[in-house]
Amino acid sequence: MTVKHRLQENRQLFITAVLCLILVSCVSLERSIEEDYIGPRPLTSVPTQPEEAITAPETPGEVPTIKPEGPITVTVQNAILIALEHNRALKVEKMNPAIRRTGEDEERAAFDPILTGGYSRDREKSEIPSRPNREGLTNENDAILAVSEYLPTGTDVSVELSTEQSWSNLYTDDLHASRVGLSITQALLRGAGVNYNLASLRQARMDTRSSQFELRGFAETLVARVEETYWDYALTQRQIQIFLESLKLAEQQKSETEEMIKIGALAESELTAAEAEIALRREGLINARSTLEKTRLQILRLLNPPDTNLWQRDIVLLHEPRIPEVALDDVESHVGVALRMRSDLNQARLQVHRGDLEIVKTKNGLLPKMDFFINLGKTGYADSFNNSVSDIDGDSYDTLVGVSLEFPLVNREARAKYRKSLLSRDQAEEAVKNLVQLVQVDVRSAYIEVTRAKEQISATAATRALQEEKARIEAEKFRVGKSTTLLVAQAQRDLLSSRITEIETIINYLKALIELYRLEGSLLERRGIMAPGREPVRQLKDEH
């Protein structure tokens, strides 16, 4: 085998190795995208079975159509779907994952191929010592085209095509030189390895995923607010109804008092107590109507239905507050759900994993910079461009191989960044442990509140029944002259308070369940709502 054939064979093997290196780097880059990235998904609903005090719409998953005029008639589930579609604050939050994802493109751009090119023309005029009366005039044209790419392995690859044309009045023939070159620089220490070079890209993907958890937490809070405001509106409507009934009863009591005063069975001073009770009922009615109007505005703000006459629309609720048939699991089960599903806890875990990548980056910075480089080229020479290109297949070639080394003597900056990354990672891990405790306190406290609120329902119902009987007995005693208007008014006032407390207890129980599900991170799933961030982040060791 001749030397020429041996060189050609070695050159082909080298080029094949370079192409394999590029392919492996690209595959590693794509794999990291597939494993690390979770794409943003729009908030949509999925069919669910009716749960608690909620009835699913006739067509699950579709946003209810709102008539342009008249009152807005909604169920709890309808209100949730409308809010997820039209709430302005949620629209703002939905943009964050897309904005964060642009950071991924910025980091991935470091591995994009770069095309460069250039052209120059040089003209030189000089005196010729051997010919005093003659000047030398030399012209030169240079053109270059190159494609370079930095690979995740820490390899910088560049392919270059160049041509040079020169001519002079000192000789008659033009000189053309065309060259094909391959340049490879491989980091051996600092900057080497896929883990280091992809660390920033993986951090950017974690930032995107973190924004998805943030969006999920916001959506969960919004759903909770919609439900709670819905039940607050229902509570206020019921309070107004109770105040109207109590006012009617107080006015009836005043009429009976006036009749008994006319027949001389009561003194005129008894009328004052009856009139005071009517005034008190009207005061409560005024306050309840004001609260209803403010709550209506809050519902409209949360739902934000598409309407030019938004603030004048009335709200009609299709669900009445009732006790849901819910059997809670033990508190440890709810805590376990929270430790997996809480958005803020998953965000905190991501910060720890992000800190691990920062350690990889800063630890690599402690190494000296040592690069291996090799430049291969083939050049053809001729009196024309076409012939110079054809001559590239000739025996001429150039090769440059070497190693470069660079190392700061103190390297103080790199050491400081590495220490900072270690401390920041430890801080993030402690923050997770602290948040785990807070989550457990939140869920356990909410669980206790649900239990208390449920027990209060039967107690307030019994109190209301006794107050009804007490008011009835006091009214009968008044009719036979054995009681006073003041005592009757007091009994009716106690009955009014017990009726309001009874409906408040039911609403408080519903809201306590909502808060428990929100704090454990399961509210969206229980309401049939899909949102980004459904998959929890891997828990840390010794997290508890």
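^ that was protein a. below is b, sequence first then the tokens
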Amino acid sequence: MNQNKNKDISIILEGRGSFKYEKGVSLEQIARDFQQEGQCQIVGAIVDNKLRELNSVLDEDCYIRLIDSCSPIGSRIYQRSLSFILMRACVELFPKCKITVEHSLSKGLYCEIHCPCKSAINEDDTRQIENRMREIIEEDIPLIKKQVPLDEATEIFKKYGQINKVKLMKYRKKSYVNIYECGWFKNYFYGYMVPSTGYLKVFRLKPYKPGLVIQLPRRENKGKIPVFKEQPKLFRIFRETEEWSRILGIDYVASLNDLIVTKREREFICIAEALHEKKVVEIANSITDHIKEKRLILIAGPTSSGKTTFAKRLEIQLRVNGLKPASISLDDYFVNRENTPRDEEGEYDFEALNALNLELFNKDLERILSGEEVEIPTFDFCLGKSEYKGNMIKITKEQPLILEGIHCLNDQLTKYIPREDKFKIYISALTQLSVDEHNRIPTTDTRLIRRLVRDSKFRSNDADTTLTLWESVRRGEEKNIFPFQEDADVMFNSALFYELSVLKKYVEPLLKQVDTTSPHHPEAKRLLRFLEYFVSLENEEYIPKTSILKEFIGGSIFC
């Protein structure tokens, strides 16, 4: 860092002030100047509202926001770069092996290494891989990006046996591909990398049969690796979705694009929806089998997971089984507006558990389940208070009661009801479809795209408004939903393999309207680049009106 006034360019660093640097200075040098010991590693920067890699150089005055490995953007850069090192280490240790990056698990990344001579990676293998990765990191090898013509890139992918990357290239609109090199090893990744392997010192490998988990630094742990928490139920749902992928014949985006281009969408849409319906039926049957012990059905999940449609479909299947479920809305139990807790920014926190009148709710719930007739309050969102308008509810001992809301897996919500009397369901869009073997689609991206479309269609919110709210929504999920997901009796994956091909035409115009001056422009641009991999599915006639997707694009019989 140099504040000499004779230097060529002036930069304004967000939260730090104004500084002078020589023209042609790299972002990496600036990052070194401001990297604080014990803080999350700086891995990228947003320069004049455009995401840039640290090896970029600056030639003119600019405004810079440094991105660290614990931020949402930086975490993706760090995770992607670390995956690259994992792949090189595995290929060196186990020649002819194939690595697949699968999905998130316990705040880490689950991967599988498929070797001709091994059925699964064991603890010794994991230790060897981690040791080799640390050797590569200690060498501080540059990660070099090269722009390669499509035909040359295709030959590289063929050489490494990456057939799904080869298939994907025929849908690429640009005439080139950015290939990254780590020494002798080359690969293609969707998104940016750190400048060199030396940036990736903080990680841990955890054996998790049949694969392993890359554990990463987290902001809530002050840049350290959190304690690994087993998530067997969530893992089983991902494995179930792999089986659905096999049934549909869709594993990567290129396979989906092929089906759309060849006009075979009707079959795979019908099968995908049937798999959803089969799972709803299984859950309804399980509830029916335990109805004498578990009459309270609790449904929770993060935003845009499709809870509303799922609850309606479950109710129909319970009726098919001869039950007559009733439901009450948790929204009617909000405390009066002036009593609503506030978040760290001083805004009303409507997602906090104490935003609900828990004492009244539990008192009413006990009476309802005991067979009493109870008057339910109605919350007036305009006035910000509860009123009684003669809304009565009474159920028999044979009737289940359905509650749906973000806190439903938290026993504090229903603290006077014994755990054995509750049937808990966790629902989320756990995307299993990947761009290719090494570029996964985060489940949060699918939910964000769903919400962007829904908010525009039903709430008159533009993309900038939704993106502004998203960080707060995600904080609420981390606090109020994800810690309780493993307590569910069953889980339901609401993701549909074909949905991003449908949502693409709805969300692209919204993202393109995000102004270049908006702080959310880099995120809008990232999502637009990501959606370029998909062929748009224009024909919606085969999507049933009961589909979870209709909750977001419109036309649902439940809304």
